Amino acid sequence: MAWQWFHRLGSPRWFYEKSNRWLTWLIPLTLVLLATGFIWGLAFAPIDAKQGNSYRIIFIHMPAAVVALAGYYVMAIAGGIGLIWRMKLPLMMMKSAAPVGAVLTALTLITGSLWGHPTWGTFWEWDARNIFMLILLFLYLGIVLLGSVYPSRDAADKACALLALVGTVNVPIIYKSVDWWYSLHQPASIKFTGESSIYSSMLYPLLISVLGYYCLFSLALILYTRHEILVREARTKWVKDLLPLHSKGGRSASL
Amino acid sequence: MADARVVSIWRGSKAIFWRDMRLIWRHRSDIVNPVVFYLIGITMLPLGIDASRQLLAAIAPGMLWIMAMLATLLSLDALFRSDFEDGSLIQFQLSDQPLYLTVLGKVFAYWLSTGLPLTLIAPILGLMLSLPADGYWALVFTLIPGTAVLALVGALGAALTVCLRSGGLVMTLIIMPLYLPVLIIGSSAVSNAVAGFGYQRELALLGAGLALALIIMPPAIAGALKISSNQ
């Protein structure tokens, strides 16, 4: 059965047990990649001719931006799968992806403004990418907010999934329109270091950092989802067998 | 066998449309309120910022658009509220007619009673903000498709939050980011017209946005209504 793997994805229990094994190699992989990327980038990559040492924050900033944007699509696709096939697990993943993505977007904004201070001379500039990341943060927070105000968990999941799907159509439009607005209002007063012009000695640690961030995102997503599974399946037998201490207390199983 | 009871879907959405128009006519204040909000909001601007004609003319295109957006958002909260409270929403879902056509009829009636009045009053408010003469047609022409897109996108927020007690604020927060492209394109069309350039490109983009919204939003709104009324 070619589709068996797909239907397995609907089972929270299967995911919980499988992800036990994934975590054993994903955690070290994430740590190694991030440590390599950061140490190489922050300590050993050459100094930028124009920006000096301040450019080094790119190794923290740029991968966060890439993964934050990708995270929105992961969230929306998971939500779409959950809506269409009525599966529990993808909806749990969608709900878990929202706060992770929001934190990464916030990290991008914070590191970006820290980087902007020495190089552009300002913490905040109404630049196309700045605005886009800010709007992305609003989109993420909207999903988190909508999920938290609904009285029923089922309805909250479906509502968030629907909003995320509509947002997916809108994200490229927002990106283009912000870009367009920028090009209309401001002739290029700030030159970015073009990505194609980056030296390979800076590019490799950057790529490793990007990979590390992707692993970090997956790791956080899996951990959040496992937590969500335990909370929602607290009444089932397999969770009670897994956590005998918690289920005895009755209410403490909601941990 | 049930031929006598089969209603054509177009007759169905027409019936919904006229029902809503009649309801709106009976609560005429619903039409007036967004327009008054628009008027008051625009009045606050010169008082809060500066009444010099030069500055007002410079910020007029953006401000006219932002206030129109806020007026739409405020009035959208009530779009499905009464249907949710009196149970009509459940009846819409039980009827033979596809829910998205019902939604389309409702949103069209809503736009006629809110988007259109806002569009018609906008030139007068432009006068108050001393918008240069070239901007008026651009303002009206872009507000027509623009408010329709705002209504379609905002109706999703209204549908998602209709079951919540403090739905209005939540709706505003989740929908505002989605309004950004319309705001940028609409206000830059007016600015371009003021500066003496053409605005056909912006008009075409808004038209494309309206076409896209007409395709994807009604099913999404219908789905949202099912979610929020069946819990």
What would the keywords be for this entry?
heterodimer; A: 255 residues; Four Helix Bundle (Hemerythrin (Met), subunit A); globular; disordered C terminus; B: 231 residues; mainly alpha; 82% helix; Cyt_c_biogenesis_CcsA/CcmC (chain A); Cyt_c_biogenesis_CcmC (chain A); transmembrane (chain A); Heme exporter protein C (chain A); membrane (chain A)
In a nutshell, what does this entry contain?
Chain A: Belongs to the CcmC/CycZ/HelC family. The complex is a heterodimer of chains A (255) and B (231). Chain A is an all-alpha fold.
Could you characterize what this model shows?
The complex is a heterodimer of chains A (255) and B (231). Chain A has 255 residues and is mostly helical. Chain A has one domain: Four Helix Bundle (Hemerythrin (Met), subunit A) (Up-down Bundle). In chain A, 78% of the residues lie in helices and 0% in strands. Chain A has helices at residues 4-8, 12-44, 58-85, 88-120, 128-149, 153-185, 200-232, 237-242, 244-248. In chain A, helix 3 (58-85) packs parallel to helix 7 (200-232). Chain A is globular and about 60 Å long. Residues 186-191 and 249-255 of chain A have low confidence and may be disordered. Chain B is mainly alpha-helical and 231 residues long. Chain B has one domain (11-229). Helices cover 82% and strands 0% of the residues of chain B. Chain B starts with 8 loop residues before the first helix and ends with a helix. Chain A binds chain B through residues 83, 135, 138-139, 141-143, 145-146, 149-152, 154-155, 158-159, 162-163, 165-167, 169-170, 173-174, 176-178, 180-181, 184, and chain B through 153, 156, 160-161, 163-164, 166, 170, 173-174, 176-178, 180-181, 184-185, 188, 209, 212, 216-217, 220, 223-224, 227-228, 230-231. Chain A: Pfam families: Cytochrom_C_asm. Chain A: It is a multi-pass membrane protein. Chain A: Required for the export of heme to the periplasm for the biogenesis of c-type cytochromes. Chain A: It is found in: Cell inner membrane; Membrane. Chain A: Keywords: Cell inner membrane, Cell membrane, Cytochrome c-type biogenesis, Membrane, Transmembrane, Transmembrane helix, Transport.
